[in-house]
Amino acid sequence: MKRKALIAGNWKMHTTAVEARMLATAVAEGCSGIDDRDVLIAPPFTVLGEVAASVKGSRVIVASQNVCWEEQGAYTGEISPIMVKAAGGSAAIVGHSERRQIFLEGDDLINRRLTGALTSGLMVILCVGETLEEREGGRMFAVLDRQVRRGLAGVDAAAMTRVVIAYEPVWAIGTGKTASKEQAQEAHAFIRNLLGEIFQKDIAAQTRILYGGSVKPTNIDELMAQPDIDGALVGGAALDPQSFRRIIAFG
Ligand code: PGA
After folding, report:
1. What residue ranges define each of the domains in the chain, with the CATH number in brackets?
2. Residue 180 in contact with residue 225, Cβ under 8 Å?
3. Whose C-alpha lies nearest to ligand 1, atom 7?
4. Distance between CA 185 and CA 202 in Å, rounded?
5. pTM of this prediction exceeds 0.70
6. Residues 211-227: tens digit of each pLDDT
7. Hey, CA dihedral for 238, 243, 249, 251, is it positive or negative?
8. Within 10 Å of residue 58's Cβ, how many Cβ atoms?
9. Does 213 contact ligand 1 (Cβ within 6 A)?
């Protein structure tokens, strides 16, 4: 089954309104005329609306970097799926390793975020990935197994059409150390096989699995040539319009 590639830019805690509008406009211009791949950007909450307005009419999907499971209520510091949609977004990232490591979000909380976002009709990118210590301790597959199973608990096959998995080894994020194409392919194949166990083979075959962690214009082509790598979740290089445009133009 042919999966449509998805190149996603995670802006993390960067950009104020003026910068965000410029960057979003450059991304939208950069992917005009390209329709064989999807492009997504995840700006900070504060500029979500501005970014959505800047890319309106283009094919760029706008996502939040995290999302709460409730529609509204006493959840200081959170935003709801309804707010994301009202601001012009249609997707959300959940379980990013910075949320797991720095803000101590665990699998159950991430699962609540994911299922809440799906219920509200958003597309969701679930991030998973092992730390260096876990990899070197031989626990990589166990960690991926747990994060994928618990992250997707309660999700039905129909909703899986709106789920994307991002494999992001923690040791490769923001470090300049990309996983080799073989290491990335190995993890992606493991996750795809796992999706076949949790759901069915056709769900495993249709689900997009992105690689993230120091993706750059210089390594995107070899990563995308791997059979189970369906796209990229890009941090640092997504803040530079030229680099991000080159990554979108992989191939
Ligand atoms: P990086 O970040 O590309 O800067 O390594 C990737 C991510 O955290 O999604």
Report:
1. 5-248 (3.20.20.70)
2. no
3. 235
4. 19
5. yes
6. 999 999 999 999 999 99
7. negative
8. 16
9. yes
